Amino acid sequence: MEKIAIIDIxxxxxxxxxxxxxxxxxxxxxxxxxxQVKIIEDYSGEGLLRLARSQEALNVIKMxxxxxxxxxxxxxxxxxxxxxxxLKNYRSFVDEVYNSVGLKVKILSEDEELSSLYGGIVNSIxxxxxxxxxxxxxxxxxxxxxxxxxxxxxxxxxxxYQMAEAFDNEKDVKTACEKIxxxxxxxxDSIEWLKEMTEEFSLIGxxxxxxxxxxxxxxxxxxxxxLVHGYVFTKENMDxxxxxxxxxxxxxTKKIKGVSNDRADIFATxxxxxxxxxxxxxxxxxxxxxxxxxxxxxxxxxNPSTNEKPVTDLVGFTLDNxxxxxxxxxxxxxxxxxxxLLLFRQLKVLHKLPRSYVKILRIASTMHDVGRRIxxxxxxxxxxxxxxxxxxxxxxxxxxxxxxxxxxCQNPNDFNLTEWIRYKDLFEEEDLEAMRKLAIIVxxxxxxxxxxxxxxxxISCDILGDSVIMKTIVTMNADIEIRExxxxxxxxxxxxxxxxxxx
Length: 503
Hints:
The chain is an alpha/beta fold. The protein is built from 21 helices and 14 strands. Helix 8 packs across helix 10 and helix 16 packs antiparallel against helix 17.
C-alpha cells in the first residue's frame, strides 16, 4: 500500500486529498482538506495577485506539507487551476511555492481540466450518455460524452463569483435572481450542441453549486438518505429551491445555515445558474456526483489504465475500495458474494426476481457482516448504517437502501417495519418481498462459508413439490457449513414456502 496527497490550487480555495492505494488501482480516502483562499476576489486593477493573498495561499500549502510529513507521505502532487493564468504574476506565485515549500505546481490546461472532469464522472456515475457540468467560482466546464467517448467539451469563463455581482447592483432578490438566470442563459445559448440535447442524455452536476442545491432540495423533500453522490433532483425540485431562494434575505456576508459553506449570494447564484442550465438543455432532472476533476486526477495517478479505458464495473471497483478500509484477515466477503449469486440463479424458479436485483444482492452479500468491524453484538444494525452511508458508485440510492435492509434482516425477526416506512418513498411495490427473499439467500451464503475456508465450490438445487434439495459440491469436510445452512431451514420455509434440505 502507498500513500499520495493531491493538492489542488483553485480560484477560491485550496484542497488536499490524501489517499492510500494498492497496485490494482483500488484506493481509500484517508482525509480531505479544504481551505478558502479567494484568489479570484483579490485581483488588483492590473490583474496582479496581491501579496497578502499570495502569502495566505502559501501558508495553506505549507500547512498541508506539514500534515504530509506527519503522515509520512512522500508523494505530493500539486495542481493549479487554469484560471490562475488570468493573473499576470502567476509564474511568480508558482516559483514562490517551489522556493518556499519545495513543491512544483503544474498549471493545468483547459483540456486537462476537462479531461479530469470527465474522468471523475465516468468512473463514478453509471450514466451511459451524459452532460457533465462543473460550475465553479471563475468558470463553467461542460463535457458531453456517449458510452465513454467524449463528443464535445467547452469552458465558459463565467462562474458564481462574476454572476453574483447582480446582488451588488440589485436590492430586490427576486429581480437579481431573474437577471442571473437570463444572463447565464445567454452564455449557454452560444453552445449549439447543448441546445440540441435529446432525452437520452442525462445532466450530471459536480461542484459546490450542485452539492448545495442538492442539500437544500433534500431538506425541502425530507429525503431519507443522507448521501449526496447519486442524488437525483427533478426540474420541479429545482424550481422549489429557486422559489425558496427568491424569498430569502440574501446577505453576502452570511451563509445559509446547514446547507452551504459558501456565502448566501454565491449559493443563490449557483442555484440560478443550474436553473438556467436545465432550461436551456431541457433537462428533466439532474444527477449529482460528489466526484469531479479532483477524483479524475486521482484516477489518472493511482489507476492509469483508466486514462485509456474507464472502469467498467463501478460496483465491484467501489466494493474493492471499501475492502481496503475494512480489510481483516480471513476476509470471506468475495466467497459469500459468489455463493449468494449462485443461489440467486439456482433459486430463480422460486424467487422470480429480475436481474435488476443482482447488483443489490452483490452489495448486500459482499458487505453482509461489515458491522462486525465495529463490534460483533448488534452488528446487523451497524451493517445497515455503514452500507446506507457508503458512497457506492454505479447504483441508485434505492439500491443502496435496499441492500442495507437485506444485510441487516437476514433473520426475518430483525425486520423493523417502522424503519422500512421511513424509506418507503424510495422503494418500489415489489421491493419488500424481494428484500425478504434476498436476505435469506445472503444468510444461506454466509452459512455455507461458516469456517471461511471456501469449502463449498458449487451448489445444485432440485425443487421437488414442497421441498428444495440443495446439493453442495465441496473440496473437504463441510459438516459445519451444512449444519449452519440447515439452521436457516425454518426461516427459508416462512419466506419461500418450501422445506429446505442441505446435502
